[in-house]
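To close the chapter, one final illustration. This time we ask the reader to focus less on the individual chains and more on the assembly as a whole: which components sit near each other, and how the overall shape emerges from the parts.
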Amino acid sequence: MSFIEVENVSKTFKVSKRSAGIPGMIANMFVPKFEKKEAVRDISLSIEKGEMVGFIGPNGAGKSTTIKMLSGILCPDNGTINVNGYVPYKQRKDYVAGIGVVFGQKSQLQWDLPVIDSFELLRAIYRIPDDLYKKNLDRFVEMLDMGGFINQPVRQLSLGQRMRSDIVAALLHSPQIVFFDEPTIGVDIIGKETIRKFIKELNEQDDVTMLFTTHDMQDIEQTCKRIIIIDKGKIMYDGSLAEIRSKYGTTRQLIAEMNQDMEVASIKDIIIEKQDNRKYSFTFDNQVVDVNRLMHTILDTYNVKDVTVNEPEIESIIQKMYNGEV
Amino acid sequence: MKNDVIKLSATYTKMIFRSWFQYKVDAILRSLAVFMREATSIIVIYFTLTKFDSINGWNIYEMLLLFSLVYMTYGILIIFFTGLRDFGHTVRDGSFDRYILRPRGLLFQLIFANADWFAAVGHGGLGILLFVISAAKLGVVWTPLRVLYYVFAIIGGVLIQGAIFLFLATLNIYLLETNMLKEVFYWNMRKFSGYPMSIFHKAIQFVMTFIVPFAFVNYFPAQFILRKDDMAAYSEIFMYIAPFVGIVLYMLAYLFWRFSIKYYKSSGN
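The assembled structure is written out below.
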């Protein structure tokens, strides 16, 4: 059995339906109407120990609901969830002692107190032994460069600093599994970079299993090998990042910069665009055209200064998927 | 294990005090403001009542004894049950999800993470002041039995109101919003309980005795000392069981909570 095992899980919410206008409002008070919203429909997945999995999909796709079921906040209507031998919503206290959860939108730090005070509280809550606490704290503070603001009240921190503190807060008790729900939301590029690097290092060094949801495709591309795409409560794709690229994104673009101004003759199956007098783009399908051959042809024929091959952005592939093109 | 629980509750308490002392003046003013606000309403009632000799045989100091029990119990109540009083808010803003994610009892966290010490000083201080004044004016003789009875009656009074909060908090799990119910069944009953119950319509007396048993918070415990004539309308037993009603009620509310928490739905994003 895998480390995280989800089988045929569904979750439906009852949402009160509002009728329009004041008469509707009054009618609602006496006879509330409910609408069923299927947040997650029949999802199955399994994740091995130490894997890092990106969970993506548009707003309302069911990502947060899935994370909440996995972390034990919600219990599924149907199906079974088993994580590390626990049923999350049944053995709550034992289970949550071994997991960490970061909600990018909702801090768990004490707003008015220095960051370190929140950490002290967590130390008492999780009964973290002194030596482990000290070891983790020192290590994370150094990795995330937090020394400068750990004694500052949370309300004075920048968003990036707060997010780093929140990530450390979720990791102090050395969880085996960490769920990140949009851990980089609103953080600037440098901050994002620091967080991604940290997450990656932790996954590699400590063999921590990680699942994270994000809107930022860069997060996924730089950290996860495996992605799960979810839309309207269903899994649309579950596999490696490389595979989705080769399967759905076979379009490549080669850009060649010449040493001097020149014209380029047309090549079969390739769309050539002139970007300026010396720069040309060659767009092709890599299942039809062999990149090596094309490169040789270009290098042999022209006086080339520089060549780059662009892979398609995963974002555009997913966009295509949502639109039902693939 | 027990040691560990004490340590954690102490850490929570330390955090609450530290947070408050980030704004020292505000913290002190808060205690004072609560005291003044509540004292003002008592003063208004005091001057209104000096126009009458008594209400249903109760003079002003006997009524202040009723008020003092409401305030003393409320002062203790908000040290332990603020988290349950404001549970609806905790659920709606998603904070309750965080409690679920921590390996500690949910009620334990709700209780110790939300203690409102400064308002407690205001309410409790007023309660003690009123209690001392009224007991002195009434010339109450404090026998050991009476002292013991009052200690338990106050604890029982706290638990009765705690049970009401816990019950309403549990209803929140099903309804997501119970402020109106709290307004009707807690705050209104609390206002009634400042006066001798016998002046009200029978239906209200019934509610205050058997549905939202505020009568056991102050009316019956006050009767234990005062023995006013209007006690004849009720069974003597009510006076003696008053300290224990809270324990039973709280246990029932706790069972309801345990049963219902399985149905908790996170409010989502």
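Residues 4-9+39-245 of chain A form a domain with the Rossmann fold fold (CATH 3.40.50.300). The first helix of chain A runs from residue 21 to 30. With these observations in hand, you are ready for the problems at the end of the chapter.
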